[in-house]
Structures are given as structure tokens and as C-alpha cells.
Specification:
Layout: E1 5-9, H1 16-31, E2 37-41, H2 47-53, E3 60-63, H3 80-86, E4 89-92, H4 95-101, H5 105-117, E5 121-126, H6 130-134, H7 138-150, E6 162-165, H8 179-198, H9 200-205, E7 207-210, H10 219-223, E8 230-233, H11 240-251
Parallel strand pairs: 1-2, 1-8, 2-3, 3-4, 4-5, 5-6, 6-7
Helix pairs in contact: 1-2, 5-7, 7-8
Length: 252
């Protein structure tokens, strides 16, 4: 049985003090919610402060990206060795990284392999743009991102992998996909691609999340789908009541 996972991606929001305040305000209530794996992904600058506040709580910590090299002359980059000192998770291939920072399926793949090498659990994002969606290219685009982003990954590590389907047209737009549409992509595209890479049994063990304008009011629609195993939450993860509502919906 796949345990639901909900991760909050804070993106470029919250100073260190603001991050402390948010965790202080909702951390204990998050911790009390049973039957769901919980992860917070604050900005790099707040990772150490949030890590200290999560001590003693069953809440994981993740980074929002990382470089694939362990050390080197990569000004401004953060290595997997640095992330692994504080975090158990790392988001890779988010559409904003692909759109604004030139991320490709090949660089995502290098980062996924580096996450494996440094014992980090990657949350690998895939999803089509609005123009690709309207052109009926969802199957081709999402399938390619899964195949090329995960190629070469050791099958023994694959069950730890987390995939997040985030249609780009739904991220931060208030226009969430429907539960049925997201389920179709999870069941008909992502799991078959995972099965092609790792075998059917392993594919069924990998958790696949939905992301894109998930809120406390629509989360249950997604979590009711058999192939949706939780959510990667953006803006709503910055709002205590909304994020707690999403967590509770996942735990039912």
C-alpha cells in the first residue's frame, strides 16, 4: 500500500524569520495528522532554521533544487552533499526551473542520479504546457519527461522515487486539472512509463503526486483517485488552514 505524501513547495517565499513563524504556527498540528507523509520545502536560506524546528516531529525537509556535482566551481549552485546535510528530499525538474532556468530532461536526469548517489529522495516533476495540452501532446510530453528524466536509475532505488505530475497550465493559475483528468495521466501515461523502466511491480510501488492549484477545497477530489498518492502543493502550503486541510484530506 502506497502511503500518501504531501509536500509543501514554498518557492521563493519566506525569509528565515518568516519561515520560523510559519513552522511555529502549524508544525505541531501537521505532526498530529496520521497516515500521511509530510514534507516542507522552504528556500535554501531557511533550511537550517526549519530543520532545527522540525526536530522531534515526523515532518520531512526538502530542498527545491540542487546541482548534480558534489563539489566544484559552480558559483551560486548548491550541491547534493550540502542538501543531504539537512534534507531527506529534493524537488527536481519543476516546471519553473525548466521555464526560467533552462532545465532539460537531461539535466533533470543527472540530478536524479546524484540524488540516488547521496541518499536523497527525489520528487521529480513532469507536466505539459498549455499549448502542448491544447495540441493533445500530453502523452508524448509527459512520457518523454518520465523516460528521459529517470533513465539509468538503479531499479533497487526506484521505489523511493516520487513523481509529481504538475500540468504547467494549472500551476499558480487557479485552474486545477480535474481529478479524472489527472488520474488518466497518472494511470495511462506515468505508471506505464515507470513499468517500462523498472517493471510493473516496482511501478506500482512508486508514489505519483498531483500538483497545480491544489487547495483545501479541491484536494479530496484528487486524493479519491486510485493512482494519485498525494500532492506537491505550492501557494496553499504557505497558508496554515489550507495546508492543514490538504493534509487531512490525504490522510482519510
Amino acid at each position: 500500500m502506497r502511503i500518501p505524501l504531501v509536500a509543501g513547495n514554498w518557492k521563493m517565499n519566506k525569509t528565515v524569520e518568516e519561515a520560523r513563524s510559519l513552522v511555529a504556527n502549524m508544525g505541531r498540528e501537521l505532526d498530529d495528522i496520521p497516515r500521511v507523509e509530510k514534507v516542507l520545502c522552504p528556500p535554501y536560506m531557511a533550511l537550517m532554521a526549519v530543520s532545527a524546528m522540525l526536530e522531534g516531529l515526523e515532518i520531512g525537509l526538502g530542498a527545491q533544487d540542487m546541482h548534480w556535482e558534489g563539489v566544484g566551481a559552480f558559483t551560486g549552485a548548491v550541491s547534493p552533499r550540502m542538501v543531504a546535510e539537512l534534507c531527506g528530499y529534493v524537488i527536481l525538474g519543476h516546471s519553473e526551473r525548466r521555464t526560467y532556468f533552462g532545465e532539460t530532461d537531461q539535466t533533470v536526469n543527472r540530478k536524479v542520479l546524484a540524488a540516488h548517489a547521496h541518499d536523497l529522495t527525489p520528487i521529480v516533476c513532469v507536466g505539459e504546457t498549455l499549448s502542448q495540452y491544447e495540441a493533445g501532446e500530453t502523452i508524448q510530453v509527459v512520457g518523454r519527461q518520465v523516460r528521459e528524466g529517470l533513465t539509468g536509475l538503479d531499479p533497487s532505488f526506484a521505489p523511493r522515487l516520487i513523481v509529481a505530475y504538475e500540468p504547467v497550465w494549472a500551476i499558480g493559475t487557479g485552474r486545477a486539472s480535474s481529478g479524472d483528468n489527472a488520474q488518466a495521466v497518472h494511470h495511462d501515461v506515468i505508471r506505464p512509463e515507470l513499468a517500462g523502466l523498472f517493471g510493473m511491480e516496482t511501478a506500482q510501488a512508486i508514489r505519483v503526486l498531483y500538483g497545480g492549484s491544489v487547495t483545501g477545497s479541491n484536494a479530496a477530489e484528487f486524493f479519491a483517485q486510485p493512482d494519485i498518492d498525494g500532492a506537491l502543493v505550492g501557494g496553499a502550503s504557505l497558508k496554515k488552514d489550507d495546508f492543514l486541510a490538504i493534509m487531512r484530506a490525504a490522510a482519510i
